[in-house]
């Protein structure tokens, strides 16, 4: 009896924790994703004693941790955009393809024209926004289901990128652009700075204005939001355009990294990693509250996991399976119900032994 | 008459939630073969009491005796096993399964482990005949009206040989003939010795069917009465406490105002819906819209609010013609709407009370100029206090509030932007009388402060109480307009019926 009551109470508390930002209980939302990340890093340390070692060479930090952050950058950018799309109850499957398009646009401009760096970057970002706007119009004005609307661009987008590249892998020799993917500043690789910058800008844009709240309101109840004067269609249009912008930035980092554009492989399947990261961060796919920080933590979990698998020396053929299992474990750990069940199993067993 | 036997007795039952005492030393006695009305406003503790009684919630302290034995049920299933069935307001059945499958779900007649469909259907048919329901039990449940579904839900409770049957607002979605059908069944069960707990907001129905009444207020028992010995006025007094009743009386006095027209509907029509509707709302005037469900009441509200776009006619507001494409346009002009469907169109459930209050003002300020959190808190605190919204905390999700309090939050949302015209579509639907009186009084005082109102309500007395005139609608068209002496509930009723 007592136990069911405390269950009901803790359920109540969990609900409160989930929904009231600014209260102390909000920290509970961060506990399990952070714990999972720490655990993974600890496992890495056990497997490889030099895991946390950093070295400073040629004005840049090197080490496994930096490596994880650097490699996470494109998915982290995607996940920032994806968080908002998912908060409105939508989903964007096209971001991987948009990465490929943006990369192709930039690569061809760099190869065929003498445009200054700023304009090339602007063109890449504009491509992403345009792609996002197409998604947004399909979803909010033509009322096509998000998964279908963005699936269209996921398929067609890669085709567009191949057309832009005319079926070739386009490579370029522009150190200034390549610096976006391979350069460093103040000791950190540039992609990390781009993520930090994008994160900070987004956070300002969303939380210092009412935009974040409007997105959450639309995600919780679009009809009621429209009835109280929020332009729900414009909000949805915005989140897809924003996701497109993030995807273009990620695409440019990838292109800069390999100094070329490979329309077939750039950003391939990364949309799924981004969605997974947002979910690991505790977001609900039906829409509602979002946290960019939790989504980025989700990305770091996925990336650390990939590194762990490599460091552990397991044959590569095990990678995908292990990744799936660990992700499942992280998701289960976040579930209040599962944790309660787990703790009751752990508690009941010794008692059973006594009997 | 022999002394009836005590079936279920609750003694000094308490239920505490973090920060809230939902039930405080509540006693309840339930005799075999009686209909026992459990009354109180929303938040009085009726639902909590039922949940404690049926094992859906664990009690914090106190005793429950069932057939003389001290027991407490660990789950609703355990209570059901013992013979306590509950039928909730929203029908808890599976619309895609057949009537028979719903009736016997989990108790299907089996042979060698296989369900005997024939036998199940025969038994279902027989069971429903006891309720004078002769329907095709192999058809999916969704085919039948809510009333029939409700009866099926009750039949399901009875099928599991209930000794105690709890009906939580069973009549909320029934029309009057369906209510009588339900009452016949209840009388029949009463004769068979079933103890029925009947929860409702409709006091007429209480007097029609109940033998005994227990009133709760703020989580405590006010008293247990024999229905025959308790005059209606004293019942209301018991439910509300005295102060509130004076409020209702105040609300009932009207002061008609005459002023400049604010809203003029000129022969407006919406494609596939209302047509040829003309009406005027003056400054500081309350205009009622009367009509049956589906008469076009809600559609007029939606058109004036820009939810549905006009196909014909024009809306003038403050002397200017409005071209409304979406609610935001109407809000910009100074029009606000409390929608009928509070849950799907009004509240944003998971967001906090504070956010639900400030959102309309924020939407009008635009996304760029975020209302500082401190001001949000002040705004919320101000309205929570002013409208007596019962919550310990403005950061609580609004979905955890009772219906009446949710409605107050929606009203607060609009008061925060001080609209010129407030449209209230069934503002008191599904709200207990306590909040009911408060909301009526609030509407009244808004009107006196110069806000114009357009109000729909199916409770005609309510409309007559504060509206300066009532527009009657039928079949998506305006039938007549009543004011002054002709504006009485019987007149309106007649107009609704025959035009």
Automatic annotation (TrEMBL), chain A:
Similarity annotation: Belongs to the binding-protein-dependent transport system permease family. AraH/RbsC subfamily.
CDD domains (alphabetical): TM_PBP1_transp_AraH_like (cd06579)
Organism annotation: Rheinheimera lutimaris
Major location (coarse): membrane
Keyword vocabulary terms for this entry: Cell membrane, Membrane, Transmembrane, Transmembrane helix
Membrane topology: Multi-pass membrane protein
Segments passing through the bilayer: 30-47, 68-87, 93-111, 118-138, 144-165, 177-199, 237-256, 268-285, 292-310, 316-333
GO molecular function term, any single one: transmembrane transporter activity
Compartments where located: Cell inner membrane
Protein name in UniProt: ABC transporter permease
TrEMBL record, chain B:
Domain ABC transporter, first and last residues per copy: 8-243, 258-495
Name the record gives this protein: Sugar ABC transporter ATP-binding protein
Keywords linked to the UniProt accession: ATP-binding, Cell membrane, Membrane, Nucleotide-binding, Repeat, Sugar transport, Translocase, Transport
Keyword Membrane in record: yes
Pfam families: ABC_tran
Taxonomic lineage: Bacteria, Pseudomonadati, Pseudomonadota, Gammaproteobacteria, Chromatiales
Topology relative to the membrane: Peripheral membrane protein
Domain of life of the source: Bacteria
An annotated GO cellular component: plasma membrane
PROSITE patterns given in the database record: ABC_TRANSPORTER_1 (PS00211), ABC_TRANSPORTER_2 (PS50893)
Protein localization: Cell membrane
Major place of residence: membrane
Molecular functions per Gene Ontology: ATP binding; ATP hydrolysis activity
